[in-house]
TrEMBL record:
GO terms for biological process: regulation of DNA-templated transcription. The lineage of its organism: Bacteria, Pseudomonadati, Pseudomonadota, Betaproteobacteria, Burkholderiales. It comes from Massilia psychrophila. The chain holds residues 403 to 683 of 683 of the full protein. This is GGDEF domain-containing protein. Residues 24-277 form the EAL domain.
Length: 281
């Protein structure tokens, strides 16, 4: 669309911005409503040990069941919730829902699974360890059931404070995993100080395995850093047998991806677990 004069373009852009703002406001008030109205839910994507293929945990991924628009993926509302601050309430809901579910599985006598929730930068505050402790206590959930996935870019501000919060979370017995590793502003000097359990290779690197030489170099380097620092390494977004084989030969510990399973509703995740037990044992 061409604009003849500057005035035309300004009018056009402000109309456009307005539309964008209205759309954002619509999503925000809808999400606020969704939180109180039981429209959010979690799907669970299994994580597998690469040796033996046992399910060792799951990533809880939030979805929004919108009355008119159907199931909305997190990419369509989490970034907005992060800019408006609503992510804090969403995160509280996710922690609550994941712990409630894990407590059901714990009571059912399942062997402990690490259930990972994604935590945004704005949730990673001094209040977080206390909230985790209170929620675990309320559900009588053993802390080994809970894991937090944090992106490295969430951790780059005020490193001393971040490490202090991480230490407190560790002291509870909750594990930490560095999500989308390699995509942020990684600083290896910070990495060596983070008291984390797992490095998560981002899907953007897994995708090119084993044909793209750069992706291979990056994946093997992350695995080797993980081994040196005594962290576990998991690859996300594994879709092909060739990717799996490359990761296995490179010494990756765990895998997650559509090759094995999509994120599943709780009941289907339980079915996947039962089948996995039969297959593995
Ligand atoms: P993430 O934490 O990196 O999660 C991995 C995403 O990759 C998920 O998308 C998952 O469904 C998808 N995925 C897994 N395996 C494959 C695969 O083999 N191929 C492909 N193409 N995709 C795969 P999803 O569920 O749409 O979530 C997107 C992002 O939204 C997440 O990225 C995370 O950053 C964010 N997110 C999801 N749930 C939450 C939440 O409860 N809180 C926060 N703060 N963020 C969340
Ligand atoms: Mg994640
Ligand atoms: Mg990830
Ligand atoms: Mg990712």
């Amino acid at each position: 669309r061409g604009h003849d004069t500057l005035e035309d373009s300004v009018a056009f852009y402000s109309l456009d911005m307005n539309r964008g703002m209205h759309e954002r406001m619509r999503i925000e008030s809808g999400l606020r409503h969704a939180l109180g109205n039981g429209e959010l839910l979690l799907h669970y994507q299994p994580k597998f040990q690469i040796d033996g293929g046992r399910i060792i945990g799951a990533e809880a991924l939030v979805r929004w069941r919108h009355p008119e628009r159907g199931l909305i993926p997190p990419g369509d509302f989490i970034p907005l919730a992060e800019t408006t601050g609503l992510i804090v309430q969403v995160g509280e809901w996710v922690l609550e829902a994941a712990c409630a579910q894990a407590a059901v599985w714990q009571r059912a006598g399942m062997p402990p699974l690490r259930i990972a929730i994604n935590v945004s930068a704005r949730e990673f505050t001094a209040a977080l360890p206390g909230r985790l402790a209170a929620t675990l206590a309320r559900y009588e959930l053993a802390p080994v059931w809970l894991e937090l996935e944090i992106t490295e870019s969430a951790l780059m501000h005020d490193i001393e404070r971040v490490i202090d919060i991480m230490d407190q979370i560790n002291a509870l017995g909750v594990t930490l995993s560095l999500d989308d590793f390699g995509t942020g502003y990684s600083s290896l000097s910070y990495l060596k100080r983070f008291p984390i359990h797992t490095l998560k290779i981002d899907r953007s690197f897994t995708t090119g395995l084993p044909s793209d030489a750069s992706d291979c170099a990056i994946a093997t380097t992350i695995i080797s850093i993980g081994q040196q620092l005594r962290h576990k390494v998991i690859a996300e977004g594994v879709e092909t047998v060739e990717q799996l084989e490359f990761l296995r030969q490179s010494g990756c510990d765990e895998v997650q991806g559509y090759l094995f399973s999509r994120p599943l509703p709780p009941f289907e995740f339980e079915t996947a677990l039962r089948e996995n037990w039969l297959l593995v044992e």
